[in-house]
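Dear Dr. L.,

I hope this message finds you well. Following up on our conversation about the binding site, I have prepared a predicted three-dimensional model of the protein together with adenosine-5'-diphosphate. For your records, I am including the exact sequence and ligand specification that went into the calculation, followed by the structure tokens. Please feel free to forward this to your student if that is useful.
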Amino acid sequence: MNRLVFQTPIEYLKGVGVSRADLLKKELGIFTFEDLLRHFPYKHIDRTRFYKIREVNPDLPYVQVLARLTNKEILGEKHTKRLVAQVQDDTGVMELVWFQGVRWIEKYLQPGKVYILFGKPGSFNGKPQMAHPETELYSPATMKQKGNMTLQPAYSSTEKLKQFGLDSKGIQKLTEPLLDQHAKDIHENLPMHVLNQFRLMGRADAYRNMHFPEDANMLNEAIRRLKFEELFFIQLKLLKNKLLRIQKFKGHVFETVGDYFNEFFHHKLPFELTNAQKKVLREIRQDTQRGVQMNRLLQGDVGSGKTVVALMSMLIAIDNGFQTCIMAPTEILANQHYQTIKSLVGDGFIEVALLTGSTKKKERNVLHERLENGELKILIGTHALIEDKVQFQNLGFVVIDEQHRFGVEQRAKLWRKNNIPPHVLVMTATPIPRTLAMTLYGDLDVSVIDELPAGRKPIQTVHYYENQRLRMFGFMKQEIDKGRQIYVVYPLIQESEKLDLKNLEDGIETMRHEFPMPEYQISIVHGKMPPKDKDFEMQRFVKHETQIMVATTVIEVGVNIPNASVMIIENAERFGLSQLHQLRGRVGRGAEQSFCILMSSHKLSYDGKIRLDTMVKTNNGFEISEIDLQLRGPGNIEGTQQSGVVDLKVADLTTDQALLLQARKCVEDIFVKDPALAHPENQVLQLAFQAKNAGLSWDKIS
Ligand code: ADP
Ligand code: MG
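The resulting structure of the complex is given below.
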């Protein structure tokens, strides 16, 4: 019954009709009764008290005043025509003014009578004034009526809707009777024990109070209830998926730590592991002994030592007779992993191979054979790894670098290659805030490396304005004299491509002038170059034939040149925080002190200034990601758009971290006690799942 009510098309609501319905659909995306009820007010206006005229000042939001009309007159002509009136109470006098509907209101206003005035206070000639106040004749009866003395909803609307009488008030006139009539059809969807535990308001009450709160406290409780509900159901879905996966997919058990691991650990590993690295290794070790497929996300800043952890986990897999692979999003990255791992394991220790789009056919065939007969233990590559032709004899452990470039489907494809799926470790160097991780990767276990290897010198970052450019050149020369290399990065963003290209060209010219040949050599790399030329220029820099590399953001991913110790970012104010952080991560890879110089013009937006200040203040990727979230909101953080899970209506991952933790914990507890959600007390949750399977979005009303 109730589902039908709320799915009713909006044109059937009394007072809507076909043309208004069309507008509601087009302008606000309101198609059904349900959509209307979920068009929550964006704020409420306080009509719970009257302000005295003496208190009224332009800093206040909308206020309500009770005062007697003393005078009214129409002034001006035609365009300047206006109605001006005076009101007074026992504390002072205030002027009211209307520029529209003058004639009509003039008739309505009666000097000597008391009015309830409601509007945004202003001032005129230093005296309090209100323009176009809502004006209502006072009588003891009006005071009792609904609408006064409450928090009144303000709904967002549009110019077009307003023309059809659907301003905030007009929308309210639709919502109010709908709620009056159908509140009983809004069924509870959280178990009673959850409501009790978190002292949550009932669902129907929450909807009513979202629109027409009894008081401010009830409004807050309604908001809390609906936020909780929203977060709860996301977590329910994620954790249910995880549970299903655990039930469905067995996992290989890595019983022993054998020769490969021990040999590497005792004789090849050139440094002490950090505590964070050890902790993550322990977590992975535990995961891989339980007989359940591991799905773990490993977060850690660039240079925090994720690759080593991945390699050591892989060695354990190999010790237990399995093959392993690393999948990277680009050829450059795959190549780099290959080089890193080759150099870590040394010669003659273990079979490692690289497979990318550019691997020659002949090589490829050999590779396939060695994979199938189990000889090859570590395969590193790109998407090429998930081609059907690539068959492992016994794939046991998969490392995926940079999660959000691979879809879930692609991941699944990898583990369809075995009866028992391999353990999966997803690595990302783009730290994301905890709340986001919990929602985006809520069905994965999360490990964090939050500690850099000892002895690393933190990159020193400064922010220079244009007038400090000479100083920057001086610094560059000084570092080049010491034998260091330098990146200079320019933004290249689609919308203003031409201008950017010009900037880049001007920049290059200045550099050439400032750093003349033959003393200085400059590499230039930008996105518009053929890959071959790019590679050539890159190689010159790698071989230290050039000291400066001028580039657009193409170097963001992948390059590892320890001798490059200075990163200069031009127009730094135009980059996002995570991009700045990624770019800065290109330096600080060697033993030398590294530097990052952020160049900007004097014209900085407020957010731009915060971004640059943040970069100067901290090197910590997690801290930076939190600030990024505050600045941009969850919808704009990389990797969130496609997921849909952050498409939240009431809750906000930026501010509702505590509530999210509660909701997650609550769901976890429920699944511990009742994994199938079969207990009578959890029946409502079963219903929610069924509703979802019927094709309905379950965080909605019906
Ligand atoms: P990530 O993959 O997280 O960016 P890497 O694993 O590539 O980091 O490590 C970055 C560099 O630091 C590599 O040269 C690596 O050999 C080195 N490294 C890793 N762990 C340690 C450690 N515990 N102590 C010293 N150096 C380390
Ligand atoms: Mg790495």
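In brief: Residues 306-307 surround magnesium ion (ligand 2) (CB under 6 Å).

With kind regards,
A. P.
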